[in-house]
Amino acid sequence: MIRVDGRTLRCADVVTAASTEGPLGIDVSIAALRGAESAWKLAEELSTRRIVYGRTTGVGANKEDPVGEGESPDHGLRLLRSHAGGSGDVMSPGQTRAMMLIRLNQLLAGRAGLSPVLIGALADAVRTGALPLVHRLGAIGTGDLAPLAETALALTGERPWLTGGVPPVPVQAGDALAFMSSNAATLAEATLAAMRLDTLTRASHVVAALTYIALDGNPEAYATPVHEARPHAGQVACAAEMRRLLGMEGTPKPGRRIQDPFGLRAFPQVQGPALDAIHYLRDVLAVEINASTENPMISTVHQDAYHHAHFHTAYVSTALDQVRATVHQVAELSVARLGDLVEPEFTGLRPFLAAGPSGSSGVMILEYVAHDALTELRQAALPATLGTAVVSRGIEDHASFSTQAARAATAAGSAYQQVLACELVAAVRALRMRKADLVSLPARDAYETAAAVLDPSVEDRPLTDDIARAVSLLDTFARI
C-alpha cells in the first residue's frame, strides 16, 4: 500500500508503481484531499478579483491576453486540446504509471488549485491501473505539457485509454494549467533511471570483487587506513563494501602484484563519485516528487496566488548529468578489468580464457560487446544541460532539458548493465578455470549464484545467452 499525501512519497514507491500491472494499492490522505479542495476554492475566488495566470489569461506569450467571462467555461478544454500535441513513440506503461502516481501526489500537496473532481478521477485511474495513451515527445524540462495534457484529456473522455479507463469528468476553466504545470513524466523516467543505476552500482561491487579474486588482487588498495586519509563518503563506502565482500576485515593474504591495474586499484576512487552522485540525485528526486510545482501556486496559508518558476528543473537535469558522467567512468574501469581477465599475465590462464585447440578465441568477443556498450554509454553521458531553447515568442528563454537528461540516464543504465554482464561472464569463467577457493569469502554466494546460471562450457561457442543471463543476475547481486 503506497501512501499518497503530497509529502511522503518515496522513489521506491515510484518503482513499485511502474512495475505493477493492473490495480495499485494506494492510500490517499483524506486530509490532503481536503487541503487540495481548499486550494481549489481559493483559486476560484481569487480569479474573480485579480489576474491569475492561466486562469484569467492565456499562457506563455499569451499571458497578457485576458479570458473573457463568456469564454471561461471552454478555456480549460482549449488549453488542454492545444497542448496535447505529443508525438513520437508511446510512453512505456511503467513510466506512464509512475507519472500518474507522481502527479497525483504533487496535487495532494494542496497548492495547485485543481478541482477535486479531476483529482479524484486521476486517483481512480491510478488505483485501477487505467493507462492513457501518452506520447514521449513534447517537453524540454520546463513542464511536461504535452504528456500531461494528453492524460487530462483522457480523464475528460476526449482521448483514448491504452488500458482500462475511468468515467469522464468535466474540466473547469482553471484546471488545465493546474494539471499540466508539472514535470511528472520527466520525474518518473528520472526516478526509474536513478533507481536502476543505484541497483547497478551496488551490483558492480560484487562483479568487481569476483574479478579481484580471479586476478589475485592486492588488498592494500581497499585498506581502511588508505581511505581514512581521504574520506570522501562514496569512496569510503565502496572500499568498505569491497572489504566486506572479500573478507578483508582480518589480515588478508597479499596479492600477486605490488600494485594492481587501475581497474582494481582505483575502483573506490572512481566508484565513489558515482555513489555520491546517485545519492544526491535521489535526494533531489525525493524533493521533486513531493513538491508543489504548479504555476501559479495557490497558497491557502497566505490566501493568495504566487507566480514563479518551479516548473524549471535545473536541479534534476544537473544531477542527472553528473550521474551519467560518473557512471561512465566506472564503466570504463569495468571494461579495463575485462581486458585484464583475458590477459595471461594477470590470470595465469590462456589468452581470452580459451580452452581447446590452439588458436581458440574463448571470450574474445566480450571485449567488443563491452566496448560497443561503453560507446553507447559515452554518448548518453554527454551533458544535456549545455543545450538552449528560446520558445513562446522569447518569453520562455531558458530550458533545463531534464527530460532529455532523464532519457539519457535510461540509456546509460541499459548500456552499463551490458558492460557489467560482460565482465561477470569473464570473471566467472576465470574462477571456474582456476578452481579458485572461495569457501571463506562472502563473495562466494555471488559466485555460486552465477555459476548455477551461466553455461559451464568453456569451448568456443556463442556467448549471447551468457551475457543475457549475467544481466539477469545483477538485481540479485545488488542484494548480496
TrEMBL record:
<keyword id="KW-0456">Lyase</keyword>
<dbReference type="InterPro" id="IPR001106">
    <property type="entry name" value="Aromatic_Lyase"/>
</dbReference>
<dbReference type="GO" id="GO:0016841">
    <property type="term" value="F:ammonia-lyase activity"/>
</dbReference>
<protein>
    <submittedName>
        <fullName>Ammonia-lyase</fullName>
    </submittedName>
</protein>
<dbReference type="Pfam" id="PF00221">
    <property type="entry name" value="Lyase_aromatic"/>
</dbReference>
<dbReference type="InterPro" id="IPR008948">
    <property type="entry name" value="L-Aspartase-like"/>
</dbReference>
